[in-house]
C-alpha cells in the first residue's frame, strides 16, 4: 500500500517514550527520583494533532511519574506504562478504544517495539534504531529521540493527510 494511503487511514498516533519522546537517557537524583527531558516541539505537534481531531497514546515499558505528568499536560488520553509485553498492551488499547491496526500510527526505537511496529497501520522509528527495527517501518525520522522525532513524524502525517495547510493558516498573518 502507498504511504499516503496508509496515512489517510490513521486516526490515532501512539508513541514510545524512552528513545522517542525522550533521548533515552534516564537520570536519577540521589533519592532515586527519575528525570527525563522532553522536546517542546513534540508537545506542540501533539496538540496540533488533537486540534484536527486525532487521538494520541503512549505505550512504554517503564513506569515513571514524569511520563504521567507529561501525558496529562499534553492531554494524551491513552497512557499505558509498565508495558513489558507491548503487543499485549497494544491489543488491549485496540479493544478499549475500538481501534483497528489500520487506524494506528506508532513510533518506537528498540526491539521491544517490533511486534507493534509490524501491526500498526503506519510505523516509524528514530534514525539510530538498529537495523532489525528499521526494517519494519514505513518512515525513519531524521530527528533523533527527544530531539523532535515525534514532531517530525506528526508533521509528516498531518502533511500527507492534508491537514497542514489548515493548521498553518492561523500562523500566516
Ligand atoms: Mg524506547
UniProtKB/TrEMBL annotation:
The keyword Transport does not apply. Substrate binds at residue 18. InterPro entries: CMP-NeuNAc_synthase, HAD-like_sf, HAD_sf, KdsC_fam. Mg(2+) binds at residues 16, 109. Its cofactor is Mg(2+). It comes from the Bacteria. GO terms for molecular function: 3-deoxy-manno-octulosonate-8-phosphatase activity; metal ion binding; N-acylneuraminate cytidylyltransferase activity. Its EC number is 3.1.3.45. Keywords: Hydrolase, Magnesium, Metal-binding. Belongs to the KdsC family. Homotetramer. This is 3-deoxy-D-manno-octulosonate 8-phosphate phosphatase (KDO 8-P phosphatase). It comes from Desulfurispira natronophila. The lineage of its organism: Bacteria, Pseudomonadati, Chrysiogenota, Chrysiogenia, Chrysiogenales.
Amino acid at each position: 500500500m502507498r504511504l499516503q494511503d496508509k496515512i489517510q487511514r490513521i486516526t490515532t498516533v501512539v508513541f514510545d517514550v524512552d528513545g522517542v519522546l525522550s533521548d533515552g537517557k534516564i537520570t536519577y537524583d540521589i533519592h532515586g527520583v527519575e528525570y527525563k527531558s522532553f522536546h517542546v516541539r513534540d508537545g506542540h505537534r501533539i496538540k496540533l494533532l488533537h486540534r484536527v481531531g486525532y487521538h494520541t497514546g503512549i505505550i512504554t515499558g517503564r513506569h515513571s511519574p514524569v511520563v504521567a505528568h507529561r501525558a496529562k499536560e499534553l492531554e494524551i488520553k491513552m497512557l499505558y506504562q509498565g508495558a513489558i509485553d507491548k503487543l499485549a498492551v497494544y491489543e488491549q488499547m485496540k479493544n478499549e478504544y475500538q481501534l483497528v491496526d489500520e487506524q494506528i500510527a506508532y513510533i518506537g526505537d528498540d526491539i521491544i517495539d517490533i511486534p507493534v511496529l509490524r501491526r500498526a497501520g503506519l510505523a516509524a522509528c528514530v534514525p539510530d534504531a538498529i537495523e532489525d527495527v528499521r526494517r519494519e517501518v514505513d518512515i525513519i525520522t531524521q530527528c533523533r529521540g527527544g530531539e523532535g522525532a515525534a514532531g517530525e513524524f506528526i508533521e509528516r502525517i498531518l502533511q500527507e493527510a492534508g491537514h497542514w495547510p489548515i493548521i498553518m493558516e492561523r500562523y500566516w498573518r
